[in-house]
Write a structure and sequence with these properties.
By secondary structure, the protein is an alpha+beta fold. It is 15% helix and 47% strand. It has 1 helix and 12 strands, in the order αββββββββββββ. It has one domain (29-146): Immunoglobulin-like, CATH 2.60.40. The protein has one helix at residues 2-24; strands spanning 29-37, 44-52, 58-64, 68-79, 82-87, 92-94, 98-102, 107-114, 126-130, 136-138, 141-143, 151-152. The strands form 2 sheets. Strands 1, 2, 4, 5, 7, 8, 11 and 12 form an 8-stranded mixed sheet that branches.
C-alpha cells in the first residue's frame, strides 16, 4: 500500500514537473512593424520585426499566402560591388528574449507569382510558420518605406 501511494505521487509529481518545464520553454512570438514593398513585376517582399519573449529559441521555418503562388525566406547579401539574394532553406532562428529584423537589404519574405501587382495601400495575408510557436497570420500593407511602429500578437 505504501509502495502504491509512493508510485502514484511520484507519477503525479513527474507529470506536473514535465508540464511546467514544457510551458516555461515555449517561445512567445509577436510581430511588429510588418509591411510589404510595392513591385511592378508580380513579385513582392515583406518585412517585419519578429520578437521572441519566451525562454527558448524558435525558428521561422516557412511562410505562405493564398494570394501568392510561393513565399520564400530570402536574405540579400553584398559581396564586393555585387548584391544578390539567397534562399534560406533552414529558416531564421529567433533567439529567446530577443528579436530579428526582416528589412530591406537583409532577411525578407519573397512573394512570388502574386495574384495581382501590389499597389500602395493594398493588404496581403501572410501566415508565418514557426518550429515551436503556433502559426501567426500577419496582414502587411504595401508601402514604399517602413510604416510607424505597431505590435501584432
Amino acid at each position: 500500500m505504501f509502495y502504491q501511494k509512493t508510485v502514484k505521487y511520484f507519477l503525479i509529481f513527474s507529470f506536473l514537473s514535465f508540464l511546467l518545464f514544457s510551458i516555461s520553454l515555449k517561445a512567445e512570438i509577436s510581430v511588429d512593424n510588418e509591411w510589404a514593398r510595392v513591385t511592378p513585376s508580380g513579385a513582392g517582399s515583406v518585412y517585419m520585426k519578429i520578437i521572441n519573449t519566451g525562454n527558448s529559441d524558435d525558428k521561422l521555418i516557412s511562410a505562405s499566402s493564398d494570394e501568392a503562388g510561393m513565399v520564400m525566406i530570402h536574405r540579400s547579401i553584398r559581396e564586393g560591388n555585387i548584391s544578390k539574394m539567397i534562399h534560406i532553406h533552414d529558416g531564421i532562428t529567433i533567439p529567446s528574449n530577443s528579436s530579428v529584423d526582416l528589412k530591406p537589404g537583409d532577411y525578407h519574405l519573397m512573394l512570388m507569382n502574386l495574384d495581382k501587382n501590389l499597389s500602395l495601400g493594398d493588404k496581403i495575408s501572410v501566415v508565418l510558420n514557426f518550429e515551436k510557436n503556433d502559426s501567426l497570420e500577419i496582414i502587411p500593407v504595401a508601402k514604399l518605406r517602413p510604416p510607424k511602429m505597431h505590435t501584432h500578437k
